[in-house]
Specification:
alpha+beta; Butyryl-CoA Dehydrogenase, subunit A, domain 2; Butyryl-CoA Dehydrogenase, subunit A, domain 3; 3 domains; 13 helices; 49% helix; 14% strand; disordered C terminus
């Protein structure tokens, strides 16, 4: 039986690509590499979801910042590939070499609005938490229309677009500045109808892609633990931490693998939002355990003296906060309870164990997953 470090060496797809450049040396080179990856990376739900998430995890295992830059670019390309009626990207000057972000966060006291005039859409207002807006060429942004939230493609270098330089005092992901962008009468093109972005299954799949990045970052920390353990005498405490980290990584990886299979061949009962929040919770808990056990096992030295380790752990600690901890747990619990209550309302007179008992399903699959009508919760935080 191999450890997770031996069994997962690299993504097969990543091995066929040029090695990702180190993010701390030249972010422009990372963006160039990212564009090349986007030309060959599969889309979630296309039959190669595991390969996609392995690519993201393998990148994060090497450099968390690089994965943080890559993931939204691939998500944007997937969204554009999935949009039902196509997008007039030429209207915003986008092409094969464009670098993409996805800006879907909302914040108190700010709002980005979209209005249609003479058949053209214009954006005005402020969008918070726009990562790398000063470096990227284009973005998909959510804006408020009279009918609700809608997704638009925009040229970040167009007149009227003003990315703010901060504030950004983060010690992790220092180069991935996530700050507001001001829009004033900016041309935009719709990407799907109103509400489509948040309700499509791909919204959930993108959320699991982020979890794969978190898991890959934790794998990098675990590999460092293993390498350090091989160079010294280990007491029982150090061995316990090493074994627990391996088990946590293996468990989270098993969840991601099963989720990839479900995404590629979705059963009728699959609820994308619930699956995504379960995966993200498992991956986030894994990251938190790995970071804590690494610090307990290795002490302050690598955090103070090892540049790669210090940067990796700082990057990962900030990145995983895209998971909203107990608030996301509560969101999952609320939707599970709502589903159970709906099942209970139709229970009378139906001799079906899956309907009567929401925690029991065919082949051990919880029937709580079988809620296709549950809506995704929120958007990415930044």
């Amino acid at each position: 039986m191999t450890s997770v470090y031996d069994e997962f060496q690299h993504s097969t797809l990543l091995d066929r690509l040029p090695p990702p450049p180190a993010s701390e040396e030249n972010l422009d080179r990372v963006l160039e590499w990212m564009v090349g990856v986007g030309r060959v990376a599969p889309v979630a739900g296309s039959g190669q979801t595991e390969a996609l998430w392995d690519l993201l995890a393998g990148t994060a295992a090497q450099d968390v910042t690089t994965a943080r830059v890559l993931e939204p670019h691939l998500d944007a390309l997937a969204i554009l590939a999935q949009v039902p009626d196509g997008v007039d990207l030429g209207a915003v000057g986008a092409g094969a070499d464009s670098t993409w972000g996805v800006f879907a966060a909302e914040g108190p006291g700010v709002r980005l609005s979209a209005r249609e005039e003479a058949g053209r859409w214009r954006l005005d207002g402020t969008k918070p938490w726009c990562s790398l807006a000063q470096q990227l060429s284009h973005a998909l942004v959510t804006a408020w229309t009279p009918d609700g939230r809608r997704l638009f493609a925009v040229d970040l270098r167009a007149d009227g677009v003003q990315p703010e330089p901060g504030p950004w005092v983060a010690r992790g992901l220092r180069q991935v500045i996530s700050a507001p962008v001001q829009f004033e009468d900016v041309t935009a093109v719709p990407v799907g109808p109103t509400g489509w972005y948040l309700t499509r299954p791909g919204f959930a799949w993108g959320g699991i892609g982020v979890a794969a990045c978190w898991w890959g970052g934790a794998l990098g920390v675990g590999r460092e633990m293993l390498a350090a353990a091989r160079e010294r005498e280990n007491d029982q405490i150090g061995l316990a931490h090493l074994g627990a980290v391996d088990a946590a990584l293996w468990s989270a990886r098993a969840v991601l693998r099963e989720a990839a299979a479900l995404v590629d061949d979705p059963p009728s009962w699959l609820a994308p939002s619930i699956l995504a929040r379960r995966c993200r919770q498992v991956a986030a808990r894994c990251v938190e355990e790995v970071l804590e056990r690494s610090a307990h096992a290795r002490g302050p030295a690598p955090l103070a003296l090892d540049e790669t380790h210090a940067r990796r752990t700082a990057d990962l600690a900030l990145y995983v906060r895209q998971h909203h901890a107990e608030r996301d747990d509560a969101s999952l619990g609320r939707d599970l309870l709502a589903r159970a209550e709906r099942l209970g309302e139709v229970d009378a007179g139906i001799d079906d164990v899956e309907t009567r008992s929401p925690f029991v399903g065919t082949l051990g699959v919880p029937a709580l997953l079988r809620s296709a009508d549950l809506l995704p919760v929120g958007g990415p935080s930044w």
